[in-house]
Amino acid sequence: MRIDLHAHSTHSDGREDVRTIFSAAKAAGVDVLALTDHDSTAGWAEAADVARELGMGFVPGIEVTTMAQGKNKPFSVHMLAYLPDQNNVALQEVLRNTVVAREQRLRDITELVSPVWQITWDDVLAQLREGATMGRPAVADALVAAGHFVDRGEVFAKVLFDGSQYYVSNESAPDVLEAIDLIRSAGGVPIIAHPLGRSDGNHALPEAHFRAMIEAGLAGFEVYHRDVPEFAREWLLGLAKEFDLIVTGSSDYHGLTGKENRLGENVTAQEMLERISSQGFSDVIYP
Ligand code: AMP
Ligand code: FE
Ligand code: FE
Ligand code: ZN
Asked: Residue 285: inside a domain, yes or no?
């Protein structure tokens, strides 16, 4: 079984809707796909229906935006939460707060960018499905649509990278240790997305912090992901062995024109999915 545990739809910053993603996954030889939109469970119901229709497996997930304390400043950590209870009130409230804060943040980013490259808030909204979790990719898409850049990648490299003068952080997102606790309380299985990945700028994540996350109830790491550098992979596999943690592999697909990541480019062992399933509240749909 080919199992890919990380993909985004138009419910957040993916460029394709749920049905398109599952059809593409099937064509790519993926048997089980997790939908992990940023801070949202809005795509789960459709994903379950489409997966059953196509004879595919489906794992409900969320990529939860969290913040951690760095040496000098806070930095963002993306925490995958698999199989939580979708009706958990505390979890949905925290997600809701993040989604609301993300809108103001994106308005702020748009205001920083617009004097240089003329785009309006309506141009950004035009790139988003109603109710979608808002992120920098929508501003990137608006800049591309206006003809200023060729694709999201160019915008991130030149304008929207972490630490640029146009960057605003998701600083009101929950602390990562609290988020781990919240996800566990909601019956979810917390796994760090692309740990030490290039795109999050968290290269200096200290070992003490990893141990704190493990103590807080972290279930594992997304070790096999294109943004996880080689040196980190070895180190993470060692930690996973020491603490008997889950390791996963995933694409982090955002659509054909969203990012270069392709469905099924990294996969998760079936044994690891079974461990996630045994710790989670909700059911995995198997193909
Ligand atoms: P935000 O959630 O607003 O902080 O934006 C982060 C999102 O931007 C990530 O989840 C990715 O989907 C996207 N992203 C980051 N770097 C790139 C890149 N180089 N090319 C395309 N998308 C990117
Ligand atoms: Fe994303
Ligand atoms: Fe991420
Ligand atoms: Zn992601």
From this structure: no
Tell me the C-alpha distance between 142 and 148, whole Å.
Answer: 9
CA distance 96 to 67: 16
In this prediction the pTM is 0.97
162 and 70 in contact (C-beta within 8 Å)? no
Q: Residue 91 belongs to a domain with what CATH number?
A: 3.20.20.140
Q: Is 137 in the pocket of ligand 1 (CB under 6 A)?
A: yes
The Cα 286–Cα 181 span in angstroms is 27
Distance of alpha carbon 161 from the chain centroid: 17
180-237 confidence digits (pLDDT tens): 999 999 999 999 999 988 655 555 557 889 999 999 999 999 999 999 998 899 999 9
2-60 residue pLDDT tens: 999 999 999 999 999 999 999 999 999 999 999 999 999 999 999 999 999 999 999 99
Distance 199 CA to ligand 4 centre (A): 11
C-alpha distances out from residue 12 to 3, 34, 222, Å: 21, 14, 20
Asked, for residue 219, whether it belongs to a domain, the answer is yes
Residues listed for the chain: 287
Ligand 1 pocket test, candidate residues 12, 156, 171, 260, most atoms within 8 A of CB: 156
Question: Angle at the Cα of 14 (from 11 to 18), degrees rounded to 5?
Answer: 60
Phi, psi of 191 (to 5 degrees): -130, 125
User: How far, in Å, from the CA of 113 to the mean position of ligand 3?
Assistant: 23
Pull the structure tokens for residue 192.
């760090």
